[in-house]
Specification:
This protein is of the alpha+beta class. The chain contains eight helices and 14 strands. Helix content is 35%, strand content 23%.
Length: 330
């Protein structure tokens, strides 16, 4: 059983509901609601025992309830395949999977989590909220924007608001389309969404990005007025009926404005016989490192599957790992 520091009453129901709403509609307005609740939240952060202190000694220190200079637990970090590290936090114990055993749990205000995550020696990319379910990542640029807004609002009444600049919004919106909006619509609309993309091709993809930008740019007070930089010429769409069990759409994402960690391609796959769907991505990494193969499941969670196959062979590999793939030889 994990040891915890003095455990407060954690009530993040409003924050968890805001995360669900955001997953359904990735708008700047819904992100504002999340940031508002975060500013008031107490979160759970897993940690490791300090070196040279046994679990028994740690338990005594925690039980005493007295400050002790030896009690300096080290935060647990999560890393991507390419080595990028994030600071994981959870809105409740229920968000921590049963198979994830942590020796120590800290209950910290979000502001304290942000301070720890910003330490230069940790070299973190940002904070990952409920990484095994919602997996909402707040990158360091957003952390800086939130801190600036909070500093400016210190002592002022009302709700503190955070507005991302244009560059941050472009990054944010592209990530939402590639890892949230496309799989969300595929799992929800199934055959009709495949028909939309098959018939509309690159023009339909461009329209989906435009819709996402329009949601954000509709209110000039909440976000920069942006227009989608992508046109149908920036996409490549390949639609194939592999066999009676496999309808596939491969999307080559725009190279324009693509940052490290974003998708170079996505694979939307449907079984016409059962209406099952699967969504896979290939994310770009640093030069001389393998790209990363990932999967977004029906609950919206993103899972890394390891190094991506060599370019050009991803399709054949993915067809072999489909949930309904048969192993029979003909």
């Amino acid at each position: 059983m994990a040891i915890t520091n003095k455990e407060p009453q954690v009530h993040n129901e409003a924050l968890e509901e805001a995360l669900k709403v955001f997953k359904a509609e990735q708008s700047q307005e819904n992100m504002q609601v999340i940031l508002k609740h975060l500013a008031e939240a107490t979160l759970i952060q897993p940690a490791l025992f300090p070196k040279n202190i046994s679990p028994q000694e740690m338990a005594k220190i925690v039980k005493s309830g007295k400050p002790n200079p030896a009690l300096k637990p080290q935060p647990v970090l999560i890393k991507t395949k390419e080595g990028k590290a994030f600071f994981p936090v959870f809105t409740s114990k229920e968000q921590i999977p049963a198979d994830q055993k942590y020796p120590f749990l800290l209950f910290l205000p979000y502001t304290e989590c942000a301070k720890i995550a910003a330490k230069e020696e940790l070299k973190l990319e940002g904070i990952a909220i409920n990484p095994f379910t919602d997996n909402l990542v707040l990158h360091q640029q957003m952390q800086a924007a939130m801190k600036a807004a909070q500093d400016a609002a210190d002592g002022a009444p009302g709700v503190r608001k955070v507005t991302l600049n244009a560059s941050q919004m472009h990054e944010f919106l592209r990530n939402q389309v590639e890892r949230q909006e496309l799989p969300r619509r595929m799992f929800a609309e199934k055959e009709s969404f495949f028909t939309l993309l098959t018939d509309g091709k690159e023009e339909a993809l461009s329209a989906i990005y435009k819709e996402m930008y329009d949601k954000v740019s509709g209110n000039q007070e909440k976000a920069p007025v942006l227009s989608s930089p992508y046109t149908e010429e920036d996409f490549e769409l390949l639609s194939l009926n592999i066999n009676e069990q496999t309808q596939l759409i491969q999307v080559t994402m725009p190279k324009k404005n693509r940052l490290m960690g974003q998708c170079s391609s996505a694979f939307l796959i449907r079984n016409p016989q059962t209406d099952e769907c699967a969504y896979y991505t290939v994310r770009v990494t640093e030069k001389e490192k393998a790209n990363v193969l990932g999967q977004v499941t029906g609950d919206g969670a993103y899972h890394e599957l390891g190094d991506a196959p060599d370019e050009g062979s991803e399709l054949y590999y993915i067809l072999g790992i489909l949930p309904w793939a048969k192993t029979t030889e003909n």
